[in-house]
Amino acid sequence: MAVTLQQLTQWKQSGRSIISLTAWEYSLARILDRAGVDIILVGDSLAMVGLGHSSTLPVTLDEMIHHTKAVCRGVQHALVVCDLPFMSYQVSVSQAIAAAGRVLKETGASAVKLEGGHPKIVNIVQELTIIGIPVMGHVGLTPQSVRILGYKQQGQTKESAQIIIDQAIALAQAGAFGIILEHIPSDLAATITDKIAIPTIGIGAGNKCDGQVLVTADLLGMSSRQPPFAKSYVNLKQVITDAVQDFTQEVQHQKFPQS
Q1: CA distance 226 to 229
Q2: Average pLDDT score, the chain
Q3: Which residues contact 238 (CB under 8 A, 6 or more apart)?
Q4: Got the DSSP string for 26-43?
Q5: What is the DSSP string of 215-227?
């Protein structure tokens, strides 16, 4: 059965950890779904791992929709969430509604994710949820703000930690069904997780969140630049290299095909 928003809240209440990974195409999404992943995020990390950009900023809404369609074709169980890319929702509520509406109408995804907890963003989240578009929030290190924040850990001072707490509370009150906490101290993530009724999904935020997410390219050892909080569970880059080299050798020595 497909994962629902209500299940996510129930899992938080029962202490059952939520598993999330990213996908950017059909084959990978199908594998993740059948492996039992709860949330498949079509993240704007697509810009870097799938399209070769140096940040998430260049990816467009049309590109996100294109790849989310492919992911959704491979998924039967997981909840698919699509990132709204940079400058597809920040201008106005009407722009955000149009972008999020396209995602849900055209892709088959169940929800959208957007970054930040500024009052303007909180208002956008509220307006989207009022008209029936499920929204996941994202606070802490927000990669779309890389030009301002860089990639360093956020919430290290008492003042900045309180801002992130207030943002998470505001997003929950605005109707977000969950919040990603990225690259913040573990004690801060634990505090937020205790303070809000919706699930927190951590990435570089310690093990006290309600769930964890990784960029799948990092998990598989395929990234060219991996953040310090990620973990590779296999060196798939080397596995693929070895397979290609074996194929090359067999073709060159006329061992493949055998006849």
Answers
A1: 8
A2: 97
A3: 221
A4: HHHHHHHHHTT-SEEEE-
A5: -HHHHTT--SS--
From 63, 115, 159, 182, the catalytic residue: 182
Taking only the tens place, the pLDDT of each residue in 204-231 is: 999 999 999 999 999 999 998 889 999 9
Q: Is the pLDDT of residue 1 over 90?
A: no
| pLDDT value at residue 225 | 84
Domains of the chain by start residue, with CATH: 5-234 (3.20.20.60)
8 A C-beta contact, residue 44 and residue 143: yes
| Helix or strand run (H / E) with residue 23 | none
Q: What is the rounded distance in angstroms from the CA atom of residue 249 to the CA atom of residue 170? A: 59
∠ CA(244), CA(246), CA(251), 5° rounding?
Answer: 95
Q: How far apart are alpha carbons 29 and 20 in whole angstroms? A: 12
The one-letter code for the residue type at 66 is H
Residue 182 appears among annotated catalytic residues = yes
- What amino acid is encoded at 20 in this protein? S
Which token pair is 103? 């995602």
Please tell me the pTM assigned to this model: 0.97
- To the nearest 10°, the Cα dihedral for 60, 65, 67, 68? 130
pLDDT of residue 118: 97
pLDDT of amino acid 138: 98
* Structure-block tokens of residue 19: 């598993």
103 and 69 Cβ atoms separated by less than 8 Å: no
Judged against a pLDDT cut of 90, whether residue 77 lies above it is answered with: yes
**Are the C-beta atoms of 158 and 134 separated by less than 8 Å?**
no
Q: How far apart are CA 176 and CA 81, in angstroms?
A: 13
| Side chain identity at residue 208, one-letter code | K
